[in-house]
Amino acid sequence: PHLVSAKLRAGIPPKVRGVIWQAMSQSASLNLETVYGQLVVEHSPYERIIQRDLARTFPGIEMFKQEGGTGQQALERVLKAYSLYDSLVGYCQGLAFLVGPLLLNMPEQQAFCVFVRIMETYEMRTMFTLNMEGLQLRLYQFSSLLDQILPDLSDFLKLHEVNVPMYASQWFLTLFAYAFPMELILRIYDIVFAEGAAETIMRVSIAMLKRSESKLM
After folding, report:
1. What region holds the Rab-GAP TBC domain (predicted)?
2. pTM for the whole structure
3. What is the C-alpha to C-alpha distance for residues 37 and 32, in angstroms, rounded to an integer?
4. CA dihedral in degrees (67, 90, 95, 58; nearest 10)?
């Protein structure tokens, strides 16, 4: 596992990235693909909200920038199908940013299957349930890590009333996709599939703040 993780940190070749992600997440499921085919033609109560958010999702990425284009349509279908597949989550802002990188690397049926694995196996789902227990837990864990690893920066941010949820919530909910370049996001996904979402979120967040500590203080 350590050798695999080390190789993945070096970056997966773009041509095989989608296949590797599917293999790492063990997403292959004829049943899920069949379910997707059934759900994608049904009506979702979240359709209007999903459509509203499409233009806000990766507007600088060629695949998603055209209103009503093939990329936006695929994104809409995957999000709509998932909103029906998992009624307790339905649709929340942030989910589109998790699906986008998948669609850049694989067909939408496979993207749906991998997305289900991200939510369930990689424990992203509780970040989006009603009380967001998963998000609250990870924010608490990150606050503790920040106190331990970067105590001076942690104290400085608290002094200026910059609380962890103010900047970290978007990072965690979108696996950093909301605010960072796609090249970096894809590398983060590589590590997520090898080492898990929670571990990767913590390590990347601490690394970014450590690198920027002198500029922030």
Report:
1. 11-196
2. 0.92
3. 9
4. 10
